[in-house]
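hey so u asked for the seq, here:
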Amino acid sequence: NLSDSVPAELLNCSFASTALGGATGNSASGSGGIDETLSMPVGSSLTYTLSCDIDPAATGTLSNTVTISGSVSDPDANNNAATDADTVMAPEADISVTKSDGVTAAVPGQDTLVYTIIVANAGPSEDPAVSLTDTFPGELSCTYTSIAAGGASGNTAAGSGDLSETLSMPSGSSVTYTADCAIASLAVGILSNTADASSSVTDPDPGNNSATDSDTVMMPMADLAV
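ran it, structure tokens below
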């Protein structure tokens, strides 16, 4: 009997095997762990190749043990188990943020700016505590909603004012915020608004952790009547 129950941190495992010397009973291929009852003549052998993905949330040490046991007397039982251990490296998560309202100019007191802010984790690891902040300019009065995808959580479904969120983001997940902002009637100049996201684990590309949208405030309009 050959048995290899892979650790829970190993996902999507599959294996293939090759028999030599007249050995039989092996599965040519399969998925998950290995549990085989084999017939093995003297001098025979079997080679298994097991391939697994590592859970993006895995930490510590991955230890995997395979064991064999015979149906007849074994003169040396000390070689009937083998273990391989691997250190899980520090997790890495490429956190990014984008922001746009789709316009470049707006009229104060008339137009509403609708910002789309997207925070994403391109992996390869999970990030349990992504920080998202967006302090809106004083000339804007904002409400927002958010939708999480890919298993992300921690986002506020609806709110008002500035954004300050701590998000749990598996690899491949994202959170999309939609902020509706009214422009104060006395606003002038340039409205510049920045969203920042930071990772709680190593980020291989911190250059995409900030996004700014700028709009020119048009000349004020006033329909006077007497």
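Residues 94 and 166 are 16 Å apart (CA to CA). The mean pLDDT is 94.
lmk if thats what u needed
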